[in-house]
Specification:
The structure holds 2 protein chains of 2 kinds. Chain A is α+β, with helices and mostly antiparallel strands. Chain A contains 10 helices and 18 strands. Chain B contains 10 helices and no strands. Classes of the chains: A alpha+beta, B mainly alpha.
Chain lengths: ~475, ~280
């Protein structure tokens, strides 16, 4: 092997090592967290996900162009934001790989004998001498400690006759590292699965109508394997006029049979075959209305029952009418609420159609238009519709599993520590003995020190 | 409404507590210190009664809901949590001197709350959920813990500076303040309370959003800012165990973290738009 090849390999190896050290470093994590925090701010200032033409209202054309190129209008899905998240995931995986051996070793390693060498490595220790035989001291010490360390203890007698008692608590709290760090990866995975295999959409469903397919937010048409019928919709108001409760009585129909019937409301959706229907909004659409043509002297000239969106001939006049819009509370220019109003397109036999508003409560409103007859509307029949948010998210389960792991892991990491305690007792002379007590905790050491100090105090009180 | 009378009384008592804590720092007599602690506790008791009364009055009005649903109520609850967290910390760590830095918070928050609308209004359907209680309580205890830790981190940075110039004014004010190691430790412990609660707050919020709106995460400004806060404190917790990031840098992160918390709580509602309506009323 030539020299250059050798060094080439070395640089390669040291390069991989440097890269690995970088990817698994705590510093990278801290920097990434802060970077993600800083970048996320942009998306809260620039409104996300509007149609592009709307941005021209808020920004100069050049700014829109630049922001759009940078992906700032959908920044949480932009390549640079996603790259940061991917790097975070890589960092978490690298950290887990580089630390799991040490953590597992910490979980497995059990030192049962408190010898000189080991004692030196422990942070809290104390030696007490007694004028009592070791058996008595052992029983008394066991009595004191086992009240605090309730689990099983281990007792070892070494060759020199020294007894070693070992106590511990919450050994498995050392695993909290895996819970917290892997939970984030599981949440990520859930999010990815949701965005690839799930969908979301919104539908308005009229009372009595049946839903078979819907348009998702990404614009695709999804057919359902079943049907959802809105049997009834109902809304209740507070005295203040604000909505108190709105609910839809839904039936799920599969193969022609009703499988589930449930009344959904806000905060109480219906789920069937992984697809969930949420009560989201409501409204009313007109179905039909009676439109009358009235002479200026007030006598009836002609009449028609017109269905919404259908051009209908009116008897007695040449014009045809088409109900095209509806408002439950029509607001007059002076701000007054004029009640229900029907927007009607009027088609004369020749020339252009024109749109007028006819107010049900003010039958002479259209007279202001002039001409030898005017229109009025009666019996507007409306059908209420329920606004449903429909979503399918197969990744949800993972997100909640990850979230629970994260919470448990954080609680464990902060509030539970692996606490170990050793007590060794040896005979120093006939009827005399020496007790050494030492302890170690992987976290919250000051709390543990207080705990051990209390035990030491009790130990010192053993006299007979 | 009698609950607002009690809230006014409580604001006054918090003001007194603040004055007494500052007097304690200035004169350092134990009697004033004890009086300050008891006054703060009295304010807390009055506020607890006021919250209970407001809850009861909402039932009297036929609305019947927990007093945690608009800006006024959230501010009042925020002051309440800051007070209780500080009272517990003071008992545990015997650091009454911190009171001068933390006790202004309940007073300022209550004073600010008094400027907002106090009306008890009925709940819109989206807010009618048990998740409201869990979500709001966990978030606000988290926020309050961060507020306390913010006060401590500022004190820490000032103390570190005074420790670097030991010659100046020994036995003076800074000699009276606990050493920087203790301040750092207590500040960390407070964040150790706040961070799990913020995490639970975000998760319960996501879960609730999923039940109410059919999406557990929509990157709305409130959600995003809560995540920003979470990122910053996660960075703080990891910084504290990283060489070169301990001490000062970690303390700065805790201060930045609370600034982000404040923005998440008030800034988003006052400046940005979003799904969380309570700030706009």
């Amino acid at each position: 092997m030539s020299v250059t090849e050798e060094t080439g390999k070395k640089t390669k190896r040291s390069l991989t090592r440097t890269l690995w050290a970088f990817l698994s470093s705590l510093k990278l994590l801290v920097v990434l967290l802060l970077l993600l925090a800083a970048l996320s701010i942009a998306g809260t200032i620039i409104e996300q996900g509007l149609p592009l033409q709307q941005y021209y209202r808020y920004y100069k054309p050049l700014t829109v162009e630049i922001f759009n190129r940078l992906g700032l209008f959908d920044m949480y899905h932009s390549w640079w934001f996603v790259s940061c998240l991917v790097l975070l995931a890589v960092n978490l995986i690298a950290c887990t790989i580089s630390r799991y051996k040490g953590i597992l070793a910490g979980v497995k390693k059990k030192t049962l004998v408190l010898d000189e060498h080991f004692l030196r490595s422990l942070p809290f220790k104390e030696t007490i001498c007694y004028d009592l035989p070791p058996e008595k001291i052992r029983d008394a010490a066991l009595g004191i400690v086992s009240r605090r360390f309730t689990g099983k203890h281990t007792e070892t007698v070494t060759a020199d006759g020294t007894r070693h008692l070992f106590f511990e608590k919450a050994r498995y709290s050392r695993l909290s590292f895996f819970l917290t760090h892997l939970s984030i990866l599981i949440i990520f995975l859930g999010g990815i699965i949701g965005s690839f295999f799930g969908y979301r959409g919104y539908v308005n469903l009229l009372e009595g109508d049946t839903l078979q397919r819907l348009q998702t937010r990404s614009g695709k048409i999804r057919a359902l394997d079943f049907q959802v019928k809105c049997n009834a919709f109902d809304v209740e108001f507070y005295n203040t006029g604000e909505p108190k409760d709105y609910r839809s009585d839904l039936s799920v129909i599969k193969d022609g049979r009703e499988v589930i019937r449930k009344t959904i409301r806000v905060n109480d959706p219906l789920t069937f075959e992984g697809i969930t229907f949420f009560q989201s909004s409501y409204g009313a659409l007109p179905e039909k209305a009676t439109i009358e043509a009235i002479n200026n002297d007030g006598s009836l000239r002609g009449t028609a029952i017109a269905f919404f969106g259908e051009r209908t001939a009116v008897s007695g006049i040449p014009d045809a009418v088409e109900p095209a819009d509806y408002q439950e509370h029509f607001v007059l220019p002076n701000g007054m609420d004029a009640g229900p109003a029907l927007g009607v397109n009027i088609y004369p036999p020749e020339g252009r159609a024109r749109g007028v508003w006819l107010l049900q409560n003010y039958p002479r409103y259209d007279r202001m238009r002039g001409g030898d007859y005017f229109f009025r509307v009666k019996n507007i029949v409306v059908r209420e519709y329920t606004g449903l948010q429909v979503s399918k998210d197969p990744g949800e389960f993972l997100v909640w599993t990850g979230s629970i792991m994260l919470i448990l892991g954080i609680m464990m990491a902060f509030f539970i520590s692996h606490r170990q305690l050793w007590v060794s007792i040896k005979a120093t002379a006939e009827g005399k003995s020496e007790l050494t007590i030492a302890g170690k905790a992987n976290r919250n050491r000051d709390t543990y020190k207080r705990e051990i100090d209390a035990i030491i105090r009790l130990m010192k009180e053993i006299v007979r | 409404m009698s609950n607002s009378l009690l809230f006014n009384a409580c604001t006054l008592v918090y003001f007194l507590a603040m004055v007494l804590y500052i007097a304690y720092v200035s004169f350092r007599t134990q009697r004033v210190g004890r009086l300050a602690s008891w006054t703060l506790f009295a304010g807390f008791v009055i506020e607890t009664a006021a919250l209970g009364l407001r809850w009861y009055e909402s039932y009297e009005m036929g609305i019947g809901r927990i007093p945690l649903t608009n800006l006024y109520e959230s501010l009042v609850f925020f002051a309440w949590t800051v007070a209780i967290i500080y009272i517990l910390l003071e008992r545990k760590f015997r650091l009454r001197i911190m009171g001068a830095f933390v006790s202004p918070f309940p007073f300022i928050i209550m004073a600010y709350a008094s400027l907002t609308s106090k009306e008890i209004r009925p709940l819109i359907p989206a807010l009618q959920s048990n998740w409201l209680t869990y979500h709001v309580i966990t978030c606000f205890i988290g926020y309050a813990a961060f507020a306390v830790s913010f006060g401590l981190s500022i004190l820490y940075l000032m103390k570190v500076r005074s420790e670097q110039n030991p010659g100046r004014n020994p036995g003076g004010f800074w000699g009276f303040i606990p050493d920087s190691v203790t301040l750092d430790e207590v500040s960390y412990k407070t964040i150790a309370i706040g961070f799990p609660l913020l995490t639970i707050g975000i998760v319960t919020g996501a879960f609730w959003a999923n039940v109410a709106w059919g999406s557990y995460w929509s990157w709305d400004p409130k959600e995003t800012w809560s995540l920003i806060v979470w990122f910053i404190y996660a960075a703080y917790l990891h910084a504290r165990i990283t060489r070169g990031w301990m001490g000062k840098k970690a303390a700065v992160l805790s201060i930045v973290g609370f600034a982000a918390t404040l923005f998440c709580y008030l800034g988003v509602n006052l400046i940005l738009a979003g799904l969380h309506s309570y700030g706009s009323s």
